[in-house]
Amino acid sequence: MMTVAVIGAGISGLVTALRLKQAGCRVTVFESSDRVGGKLRSARLDGMTVDMGAEAFVRRRPEVMDLAAELGLADDIVSPVGRRPAVYADGGLYPFPARQLMGIPADAHEVSVPLAWAPGSDVSLGALVRERLGDEVVGRCVDPMLGGVYSAHADDVSLRAALPALAAELDAGATSLTAAVGAVLARSTATGPVFGAFRSGYQELLDALAAQLEGAILLNAPVPELRPGWMLRGWWFDKVVLAAPPQQVARITRTSFPQLARAVGAIPAANSAIVTLVLPDTVALPDYSGVLVASRQVLTAKAFTLSTQKWGADTRPGPTVRVSLGRLGVSRILDEDDQSIIDVARADLETALGVTAVPVSAAVQRWYEGIPVYTPGHLDRLAEIEAATPPGLVLTGAYFDGVGVAACIAHAEAAAERVLERQAAG
Ligand SMILES: Cc1cc2nc3c(=O)[nH]c(=O)nc-3n(C[C@H](O)[C@H](O)[C@H](O)COP(=O)(O)OP(=O)(O)OC[C@H]3O[C@@H](n4cnc5c(N)ncnc54)[C@H](O)[C@@H]3O)c2cc1C
């Protein structure tokens, strides 16, 4: 029986471990903290469960839905009730464009000069959109969206890594950027809600995964260093899966695999914080699912999710607002104490939405190195990582093929396949 060590019990490590266990391997998961889940974390606040990290998933991809069904959780998936988000800019709230791809609108007025595009090239989404649609579209549509997904500015995110389908349309000779966006949107045949969430938070999924892996997960078991031969904390393994964030992978591999450590360590990650505010029942919030903040505003917050309005009152009782703060290179706010961060979140909520009520409860969650950022050249860095990965070691995580939970599950399942393929190949 093949023995495999999985380092990291976030969603990537848990899913890899589950698939390997189902394939007959003896799996041990080493987790440095005292809990499973990594960036998935639910907490109790004012009698209800709220997610303090990721709160949703893309429902139009199959991975989370399939896993939930396999684990008997299909009936626990909820969808947004249908309100749209708004953008806060210069003192006002504006509806977010309906037909858009990562904030790039399909219907905006574009400069009339022909699109100059060198097939195969890579640029930041900010540079591409600014050239065709102007700075305002970057600041009011693309930046606010990328602030949420990647915790980064549009100028820091690679077109080719973040939106490969759009890059392919441009490579194929699209006549304009908006035509390329329209073509990508038109290819999607998926219907139904775009997003989903677990009724009682991601903890439901984590509990179900941990139950499947009972006896195989070691908590408070950090792996400080990885050496060839695969002896970890006193045990020998045939194979190792590294499912830790890139900065941790760089630390663990620094001595024995310096080339790999350099390549992985070059991937930046953004620090962010989530402040959850439960407001008194009397507070009325605007009729949006959330509010994204445009660039160059005086606010520190980058987004407000109006959770009760988004998911419906039966899943999130009481007006609850989730305030997101921090972006790549802009994260000093995380070093403040909890009360100061809550004060900043409340002041921003007053500026953007006019809400002055004192919250019934409030909680702060800091995420250092929370989200890996796919800066231009990201795909070259992944190729370097692939070339520097020694036999017997497989890497997975949010820095490979999408930061979302669904993408992490897909990559984790592929990582398990790679472990098994390598076994078959001897
Ligand atoms: C604030 C925030 C909001 C988000 N919102 C969403 C959302 O709404 N929808 C969505 O789809 N995605 C969202 N994401 C992204 C998504 O949550 C993450 O990309 C995903 O959960 C990452 O999972 P992972 O398993 O790859 O990494 P992680 O969750 O980082 O797990 C890695 C694990 O490895 C452990 N570890 C690290 N070093 C070691 C070591 N040396 N030894 C042992 N263990 C180690 C860590 O403790 C951790 O448990 C969000 C992310 C953040 C930060």
UniProtKB/TrEMBL annotation:
<dbReference type="InterPro" id="IPR002937">
    <property type="entry name" value="Amino_oxidase"/>
</dbReference>
<dbReference type="InterPro" id="IPR050464">
    <property type="entry name" value="Zeta_carotene_desat/Oxidored"/>
</dbReference>
<protein>
    <submittedName>
        <fullName>Protoporphyrinogen oxidase</fullName>
    </submittedName>
</protein>
<feature type="domain" description="Amine oxidase">
    <location>
        <begin position="11"/>
        <end position="420"/>
    </location>
</feature>
<dbReference type="InterPro" id="IPR036188">
    <property type="entry name" value="FAD/NAD-bd_sf"/>
</dbReference>
<dbReference type="Pfam" id="PF01593">
    <property type="entry name" value="Amino_oxidase"/>
</dbReference>
